[in-house]
């Protein structure tokens, strides 16, 4: 489909559904190396986002308008580390999504902006066992796909696969940022919850573009 405001709404709805579906898994992942609130916080946040989108009349006109609502709602409802991190990611992405329709380069720019927001906010680099690992691999895969002439839906599909690999790569790592870093070496051997939720969100973006 065309990557316009309707796609962004569909992406958001699919993200909310996926996060809700994987709520217990995210809770369990965060229980292993954090405080166990990631699944609940994020599913509550996305529920609020969907309620906000449902109540909007007229509906948002651009991808950027949709993502700004996601950003502000997640910031005010999620809390913890993930609230400000995802909030900043969506806010930066919203500023890059001002065109009525995203082409391959627009998708890359949006993903780069989101990653940039997460890094600006959390100061993590690749390999610190955070959501940055998922987003960095997603951006790299998206850039590569766009460079090879892929259409926007395929750029997003590549990003989703990259995010999956990036999330998997966090398993053996020792966390050096966020709450999991308190565990030191004991954080190794666990999937990072924020990398996993990032993987779900990017899979939702690709699924919305595929239909
Ligand atoms: P909290 O740790 O405050 O309970 P959450 O459980 O909602 O927050 O989110 C934890 C996730 O946030 C981690 O799995 C990790 O992916 C991400 N995270 C934490 N700190 C950072 C950081 N400085 N930079 C990027 N991501 C981070
Ligand atoms: Mg937590
Ligand atoms: Mg917490």
TrEMBL record:
GO molecular function: kinase activity
Domain of life from the UniProt record: Bacteria
Annotated DhaL domain residues: 6-207
Transmembrane segment boundaries: none
Keywords, ordered alphabetically: Kinase, Transferase
One protein family per Pfam: Dak2
Protein name: Dihydroxyacetone kinase subunit DhaL
Species this protein is from: Cellulomonas wangsupingiae
Gene that this sequence comes from: dhaL
């Amino acid at each position: 489909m065309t990557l316009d405001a309707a796609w962004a709404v569909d992406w958001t709805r699919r993200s909310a559904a996926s996060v809700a579906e994987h709520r217990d898994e995210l809770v369990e992942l965060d229980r292993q190396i954090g405080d166990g609130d990631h699944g609940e916080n994020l599913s509550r946040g996305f529920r609020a986002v969907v309620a906000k989108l449902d109540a909007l009349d007229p509906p948002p006109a651009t991808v950027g308008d949709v993502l700004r609502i996601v950003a502000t709602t997640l910031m005010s409802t999620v809390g913890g580390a993930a609230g400000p991190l995802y909030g900043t990611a969506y806010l930066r992405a919203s500023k890059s999504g001002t065109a009525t329709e995203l082409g391959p380069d627009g998708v890359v720019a949006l993903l780069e902006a989101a990653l940039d927001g997460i890094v600006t906010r959390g100061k993590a680099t690749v390999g610190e066992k955070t959501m940055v690992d998922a987003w960095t691999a997603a951006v790299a895969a998206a850039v590569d796909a766009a460079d090879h002439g892929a259409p926007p839906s395929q750029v997003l599909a590549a990003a989703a696969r990259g995010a999956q690999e990036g999330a998997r790569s966090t398993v053996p790592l020792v966390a050096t940022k966020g709450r999991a870093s308190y565990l030191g070496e004991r954080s190794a051997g666990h999937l990072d919850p924020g990398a996993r939720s990032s993987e779900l969100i990017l899979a939702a973006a690709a699924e919305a573009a595929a239909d």
